[in-house]
Here is the input.
Amino acid sequence: MQITFIGATHEVTGSCTLLEVGGKNILVDCGMEQGADIFENIEIPVAPAYIDAVVLTHAHIDHTGKLPFLVANGYRGPVYSTEATRQLCDIMLRDSAHIQEFEATWRNRKGKRADDEEYVPLYTTEDVLKTMPLFRTAGYDTEVTLFDGVTIRYIDAGHLLGSANVLFTIREGDIKRTLLFSGDLGNVDKPLIRSPQDPPQADYVVCESTYGDRVHPEKPDYVKQLTNIIQTTLDRGGNLVVPAFAVGRTQEFLYYIRIIKEEGLIKGHDGFPVYVDSPLAVEATNIYSTEMYEYYDDDALQLLREGINPVTFPDLEVTVSSEESMAINSDPEPKIIISASGMCEAGRIRHHLKHNLWRPECTILFIGYQSPGTVGGKLLDGADMVKLFGEEIAVKAEILRIDSFSSHADEPHLCEWVKKTDPGVRIFINHGEDAVTEKFAAEVAAATGKPAVAPYSGEVWDLATDELIQRAEIVPVVKKTVHEGRTDHVTDHRFEQYASPALRELRRSGAELTQLIEASRECSNKELNKMRREIEEIIKKYGPQEGTDGQ
Ligand SMILES: [Zn+2]
Ligand SMILES: [Zn+2]
Here is the structure.
């Protein structure tokens, strides 16, 4: 029984871990890398056709986004998750495929003119359609048998609808171990979903550390803050534009707007319209609205019992077609417009910014984290101008933010959670920024009295003996050229994943060569030297020529 760390290792995204038990290969999460990374991940060391099961902690793309890629490459086994995770994956993976198909079409149109090789998307909608029937769902706190000697149990992680910590019980002969994966651990007192549930005891704990170095500020009075912002904006005759992540954040925001409307807190603008303008957000809101009893917290359940849908209200307009979307800005009535993407890097929000940013009566309200350098980040930094659709737009609208809508536990809560797991053997820290993982591991070790490590991609541990059996080779990501004019939600690292089939094959050969070198310990010096000379020949032949900078 062993564990191999693949993704979200000393970085925040691309969650993926391999468990090997009794000859079975089990992946825990299969996430896409998003945003800038600093280390390369190893390839999954088992061909997709030889993976026996995938277990998902929750639906976010950084935990599920490469699943259709696995299926496209031969995976046919079951995908275990909660029912809400399955439903959210259905819409989010289709959205992800759509973005990639769109990207491929755009690049191939450009590439044709430059006579470039055809650009293949990571996966297509068809791959997602092949993926969805593989799901096997179960509720929280129910034991699910994956194989002889391997069972799992989901515990509510309080991070997103359907999110789970997953407890594995694994057996090989007389040896039994328990392993608890935190997935992403939720913040406390979020609307709609429960706070994270107390974790069970486990021998090994794999814990995220996204906010492993931060303490969330005290929770503000959202209803009061929002009421003020809405009242001021509507009184000025402007629109309130809210860039929001389509799944989770949008529904939380709707929850507060419903309260404000119900309590009649906005004066003089009866029935002010609220638009959700993002096909993905609309689909997600529909999922939140249907029989999610198992996942809601007590407040939301009470509302449901009273016949109230917690995320909808009479003046809510949802738009799906692009014609409907365009009509929103031609109507002068002051309104709230909620749209994606959350950091304004793609999607319809960009149209709404174009129509509203230059109007001093309008407000742009940020409710989520904005990466520096994104359109959202620039606006929060006080930019006077931003470029949208090739046009410079003056920033005259009021730019505001409400903090701590975070869906992740902060450092004290993460540490408390690990302590409650009463780790019997060891703690692994993943899903955090490089330095944060190390720092948080030290803190957790001090708090629990058990060893804690932050593994790099490629590290392998024996779970029966608690021994490190393979150290990771730390490979920094080489900065890639940013292609001008591309839809900029696609990060540098994702370009890496969009490598042509020929480049992927070449990489595979490169990885085999590394393995061959590792396996050559027994060879004679003569043989080793011969091999080295031949490799050096290849490097000389294909490597950067003198006088170039290797770009
Ligand atoms: Zn997440
Ligand atoms: Zn995550």
The chain is about 35% helix and 20% strand. The chain has three domains: 2-215+407-470, 222-404, 493-541.
